[in-house]
Predict the structure.
Amino acid sequence: MKHSKISCHLICIIAFCSFHISPLLSYENNDGCPGNLKLIQQLNSVLTEAIVHDGFSPPVASRIYAYCNVAGYESVYFTDSTFLTLSGQLNGFALREETAGQFKLLNSDVALITAFCNTAVEFVYRDFILQQFQDSVLKSYKLCLNENAFNQSVRYGEELSKQIVAWAAGDGYRETRNLPKFRPKDTPESWKPTPPMYGDAAEPWWMKIRPFVLDSSGVFRVKDPIPFSTEKSSDFYRQALATLNAKNQSDSEQTRIATFWDCNPQKTNVKGHLMFTTRQLTPGGHWMGVAGTACGMKKLSLAETAETYALTSIAIADGFINCWHEKYRTDLIRPETYINLYIDKLWRPMLETPLFPEHPSGHSVISAAASEVLTAKLGENFAFTDSTEIAFGQGVRSFSNFEQAADEAAISRVYGGIHYPHACNEGIMLGEKIGRLVLEKIKTRK
C-alpha cells in the first residue's frame, strides 16, 4: 500500500469510562453450548480497560496486547482445519504438542477465555478487571457444558497460558527494568526533556526487547533526519516552521483530527498550580479497537477474528521495537524544544509532546503497520467508522479504508505540533515495511 506523503507546507479533562462490551453474537458449538463470535473483541476491550487504568507506555502496552492475542489465537485456531499454529513461526515460540484427541473435548470459548485472561493477569496490575470478567462469563458456560468438557477446556487454557507467559519471560523485558535511565546529550540537535513534566525519556532500552518476527530490533532503518540547522534558510528550520504553522493555523477539522488521534496514555493537565494526569488509549490500543470494529462488521468467525487480532498486535509490537531502535539511534530534538529556542519561546503545541526522541513518529509507524495487516485481511476498500475514542470524550470518524485512517493518524502529529513532517513520512514507510514483513513471515492458513 502507498500512503500519502505529508507536505512540509501544511499550514480536556476526560474521565475514564468503562469500555462497552458488545452483546452476544451467538452461534452453536458442536457441544450444544452457545458460542460468542464477539468474544475476542470483548476480551480485548476488558484488557484495554486494565491497560488504560494502569497507564502503561505505548511500547509496554503493545507487548501486552501481542502476548495476550497470541494466546487467544492459539486457543481457537484448531476450530477451523484450514488454520495453522503460530508455534515455530514467532521468535522463541515453541508450544508442546497436544494430541488431536484432546481437541474433541474442548469448548473453544472456554479455552479462549481462560488462556487470554490467565495470560493478561500476568502483565497488568489491575488484574481484578480481567478476573471479574473471566469469572462472570465462565459461569454461563459451566451451566451448559458437561463437567468433563468444561474442566478439560479450562485446563487446556491454563496450560496454554503458562507456556505463553514462560515464552514472554525470555524476551528481555525484565532485564530492561533495571537498566540505567537515558542521559540526554549536551548537543543542540539532541533530544531534551519537554514541558510540562520534563520527565525522563520513556523506554530507552526497548530495542533490547525480543521482536516477534523481526530478525533484530534495527532490521529496518529510516532515513536520517534532515541535517540540523538554526539557519532560517535551512530545510530543518522549514520543517519546524511547517509544524508551527500547522498548529497555529489549524481549523476545527484539523483540531478534531489532532485530538482524535492524541493517544497519550497519561495526559498531563495543568490548572494554575495544580498538575494532574488523565488516562487515555495508547496508539496501539486505538488500532486494536479499529481491528475489533472491522472484525465485527465483517462478521468473521472466531478463528478469523483471532487471526486478525494476533497479526495486528504483532505488527504493532514489532513496530514499536523497530521504531524505538531508530528513535534512540537518531536522538533528535522535538519541535517544541527547537521552536522555543530558535523561533518563539512562548509557543506551545496543541498536544503534549511525548517524552522520547523525535524521529521517526511512532504513531505513524504502528498505524501504517496495522493498516497493512488489516487491509490484507479485510480488503483494500473496507470503509468503517472508528468509534474507539467515544469513551474518552471524542466523537467518531469515518474512513474509506485503513490506509486513509493511518495517513490521518500520521498527519495528526503535525497538526498537534509534536512532530516534524519528515518524521511522519519516515514513520509511514517504516510501518509499511514491518506490516508487510509480518504478513510474509507468518502463515496462518494451510
Notes: The beta strands are 26-28, 34-36, 266-271, 274-279, 384-386, 397-399. The radius of gyration is 22 Å. Residues 182-441 form a domain with the Vanadium-containing Chloroperoxidase; domain 2 fold (CATH 1.10.606.20). The first strand starts at residue 26 and ends at 28.
